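Checklist before submission:
- one chain only
- standard amino acids only
- sequence pasted in full

Submission:
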Amino acid sequence: MVPLIVCEDLWKVYRVGDVEVQALRGLSVTIKEGEFVAIMGTSGSGKSTLMNILGCLDQPSKGHYRLGGVEVAGLQPDQLAEIRNQKIGFVFQSFNLIPRTSALENAQLPLLYRGLSLKEQRALASVALERVGLKGREHHTPTQLSGGQQQRVAIARALVTSPSLLLADEPTGNLDTQSSDEIMAILEGLNRDGITVILVTHEIDIAAHAAREIVIKDGQVLSDRTVQDRLS
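Returned file contents:
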């Protein structure tokens, strides 16, 4: 079976004035379909840069990135946008919900580009909200929801297009312990349903929910181990 993600010798170089910053330095990693992977690293390690490339939000300076066997590095912006809309769901630390818009309307946003009727969009958004435990809260706005519930709406929005890959960037960073545990339980459940989950976090207890942990340092893979390795 072709791995879902193959990164080979990825480099990402930024220019800040006259200074050249190497965010990724020859990073290589392979992730199979259905895995639950935590990516860890200190600030400036390159983990967010890697996440942006995996999510087709940015392109490597050189190297190869294949998603589902398709070479992504070098694609045009409209091609990248299509991949994001068809295959990838995003969950961010800050939720990124539209304030005066209902949970249902927030969840259906990614479907606006699918050519579906409004009725079909609402039906799919309702299913996604129910999947994250928000049945009955469809018409609540973000201000009427707790932080944990807002993150559930964000997860529903990520799920509504039935992505094969879910990218979560510090999804519990703004939540208390109980809400964090509930969000991680949802992500674990989605992974059991077959969705590949890649989580960026700096919290060891959050990373412990994943079956595999990749630590990034100075733009390279410092360690790559499974939960069995951690326990042995």
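Reviewer check: The beta strands are 5-16, 19-31, 36-40, 62-67, 70-71, 88-92, 165-169, 196-200, 212-217, 220-226.
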